[in-house]
Design a protein that fits this description.
By secondary structure, this protein is of the alpha/beta class. The protein has two domains: about 375 residues, TIM Barrel, CATH 3.20.20; about 70 residues. The chain is built from 20 helices and ten strands. Strands 3-4-5-6-7-8-9-10 form an eight-stranded parallel barrel. Strands 1-2 form a two-stranded antiparallel ribbon. Helix 6 packs across helix 8 and helix 10 crosses helix 11. It starts with a helix and ends in a 10-residue tail after the last helix.
Length: about 525
């Protein structure tokens, strides 16, 4: 158990909105070295944002979308039985990609940071052993080890509980070494959730410079060329994972909608019209967090299920987002929660019914989608059983396999296991995330596995979106696109690089120069126009 506790990857957690240069182990010279041209990062580092809130009350009026400049180029969609149909009642197959790590950054996808969480925890274990603290750390880990292994809570709060336990149990002779170990850990970048990334950079450069870096990333990671390329592949859907903090802040005493976040989505919707694709808006990270995992954005997630204020904020956000895009046929689906980690069936039902009602207050017509979140099937009712109309169901599948045959067999078996449950739901089924390249490093078989999987899904009438569109490396093939040549695999050094260097790295994430593996790309183009089939998983 010790090896897994320290070595397994994943997210973490904490409120770190009040970081200072001293708190992250930087001296004034290092802060100056990271200053912007024409700016003084040393003084700006003293101007930090307000500390993070915990679903602070919100009351600001909803943003209003300006009239789109372009006319729609696709018809509106709706659910009819277990199919998605257009205005004439003709079945439509939704086939596309996820714009992962854009409006909710997952640092492993973008290549931000020089080490994984597992590598950092391995280093922690090694340092503890070198300092004669191995047994003390092991005892501390075991105290919350079940919560870690069962993924019941985010990682960073659990790690900080280790440190408190070590402090309490240390002998007087051990205490200086414990404090040295804790200080070392806190001076390392914990950037595995997006909250931690911006808190770290704000601690180094201050609020103003960090806001500029954040805008640079978002303005370059996805541009119109990405939407154009999706359409050129013959695909018709883009799922857009969104962190709530892109649309509405949650700081103590400072809660407001972020116009720039809504404007980015508005631009994306305009590009969708220009290139005739649909969008699926996915609340990947809700206020308070719908899971403890790193990919919900917060360093301490899961409060959506336990704190009424977080549910109220999430309801309000969905109403605002739905009212903003109501009537736009290109914004075709509202994905209420990515991978919801509900504590029980009753909580799953109550939260999803509340979010559905909120979205319907803002928009009575757009398709709404619920996800299984890897929960027991008995916990996830059919949309109709929760009084949801015009709704569909999503699942995610990530089998790890040593070959194309094994991967396709695993996907076939997983769908077969769920066949009765999926058919009983009486709704269209969307495989919202999958990728044969999961853990397939230095392997040649993922393109074949992808080709055969897409054929399998299309033959069974299952809508799909690959995870993900872009990846910072070309091995494994997590992304349809990756940097070319020697640029593949580059990682952004947030620990010591200057703000100018980090900005340049973010600008280099523009897809215009990125490339795709021909066989990987070809699997999509080969199956984008397969016939639309009725659901039969």
């Amino acid at each position: 158990m010790a090896a897994c506790l320290l070595g397994c990857g994943g997210g973490g957690a904490s409120d770190e909105g009040d970081l200072t240069a001293d708190a992250v182990g930087l001296d004034a010279a290092e802060v100056d070295a990271g200053s912007d041209s024409g700016g003084d990062a040393a003084s700006d580092a003293l101007t930090l944002s307000a500390p993070w809130g915990r679903c602070e009350p919100a009351s600001e009026a909803f943003p209003v979308r300006p009239a789109p400049a372009l006319q729609p180029t696709l018809p509106p969609l709706r659910v009819q039985g277990a199919q998605v149909v257009d205005g004439s009642g003709s079945p439509v197959a939704l086939r596309g990609v996820n714009f992962g790590s854009w409006l909710l950054i997952e640092s492993w996808i973008s290549g931000i940071g020089l080490q994984s969480e597992g590598a950092l925890l391995d280093a922690l274990e090694a340092r503890a052993a070198a300092a004669g603290l191995a047994e003390l750390l092991l005892s501390a880990r075991e105290a919350n080890g079940l919560e870690w292994l069962a993924e019941q809570r985010s990682h960073l709060p659990l790690i900080r509980e280790w440190f408190e336990s070590m402090r309490a149990e240390a002998t007087p002779a051990q205490r200086p070494a414990v404090e040295e170990l804790v200080a070392w850990f806190e001076a390392e970048p914990w950037i595995y959730e997006e909250q931690g990334l911006w808190d770290w950079l704000e601690g180094r450069f201050g609020a103003q410079v960090t806001a500029g870096l954040r805008a640079t990333y978002q303005d370059h990671y996805i541009t119109e060329v990405d939407v154009e390329r999706v359409a050129a592949m013959g695909l018709n859907l883009i799922r857009v994972p969104i962190w709530f903090d892109q649309l509405e802040s949650d700081r103590q005493g400072d809660v407001h909608f972020r116009p720039e976040g809504f404007e980015r989505l508005d631009r994306l919707a305009g590009w969708a019209r220009a290139h005739a694709v649909y969008l699926m808006l996915d609340l990947h990270g809700a206020p308070g967090g719908q899971s403890p995992y790193w990919h919900q954005g917060l360093s301490d997630g899961g409060a959506l299920w336990t704190e009424p204020a977080c549910l109220a904020r999430t309801e309000r956000l969905w109403e605002a987002l739905a009212s903003y895009f109501a009537g736009d046929p290109h914004v075709a689906v509202y994905d209420l929660l990515n991978e919801p980690r509900a504590p029980d069936a009753a909580a799953y039902r109550a939260v999803h019914q509340a979010l559905y009602a909120a979205a319907r207050r803002g928009d009575p017509d757009t398709i709404v989608m619920i996800e299984d979140g890897y929960l027991p099937r008995s916990w996830v009712p059919a949309p109709a059983a929760m009084d949801m109309e015009n709704a569909m169901l999503s699942i995610h599948l990530y089998p790890t396999s040593p070959s194309a045959d094994a991967y396709v067999d695993a996907m076939d078996e997983a769908l077969g296991d769920d066949r009765e449950w999926l058919l009983a739901a009486g709704a269209p089924v969307y495989l919202g995330e999958f990728n044969p390249a999961d853990d397939a490093v230095m392997a040649s078989w993922p393109p074949e596995a992808l080709d055969r999987t897409l054929a399998l899904l299309n033959a069974r009438g299952i809508h799909w979106g690959i995870w993900t569109w872009k990846y910072h490396d070309d091995d494994p093939l997590w992304g349809v696109y990756h940097p070319p040549g020697d640029a593949a695999g580059h990682r952004v050094d947030v620990r010591s690089a200057s703000a100018e260097t980090i900005r340049a790295d973010f600008e280099a994430m523009d897809s215009a120069t990125w490339v795709s593996d021909p066989a990987w790309y070809g699997a999509f183009t080969d199956h984008a126009a397969d016939p639309v089939m009725p659901l039969d998983p």
